[in-house]
């Protein structure tokens, strides 16, 4: 991985002692994204075309550069062993069809974790919802963070809901939680002129 790619991946993540967060944007950052302003700005630009109009010319150039290097790093990366990765979902308000067969497109970068327990911090504690995706050796996925075992997936990916189950997830022999698990798969080569596409917003 190139040094410039490592730099922008570090910016995209939460605040760590070694990465470089930018706080002097030309607009306000929502309070719940104060620790991840790069992540908020990058994904807002990807998901909402009108957001780009808020950026100053130097900010546009900076974000376009960050997206380019994230794209490049992810495109060359794979996670071997066909693991499951998980993404906590706070609610399903953004999803018009949450039944099996429902299709949605993630326009921003998709943050998952190899550790299902890490995903719970992004769910409703009273009604936890987890998305589960099985990777194969051909799917683009970049392992970026040991603390949360975070895996970053490319933007503009289309997914289909293949199953919805209520499962008891065990964290230890004595600790478990009932969880709604949405099992999803990537649709490769999907015709984007067909079907319904929605943008994920408030998820991990």
UniProtKB/TrEMBL annotation:
The lineage of its organism: Archaea, Methanobacteriati, Methanobacteriota, Stenosarchaea group, Methanomicrobia. It comes from Methanimicrococcus hongohii. PROSITE patterns: TR_MART. InterPro entries: ADP-ribosyltransferase. Pfam families: ADPrib_exo_Tox. This is ADP ribosyltransferase domain-containing protein. It comes from the Archaea. Residues 61-178 form the ADP ribosyltransferase domain. SUPFAM superfamilies: ADP-ribosylation.
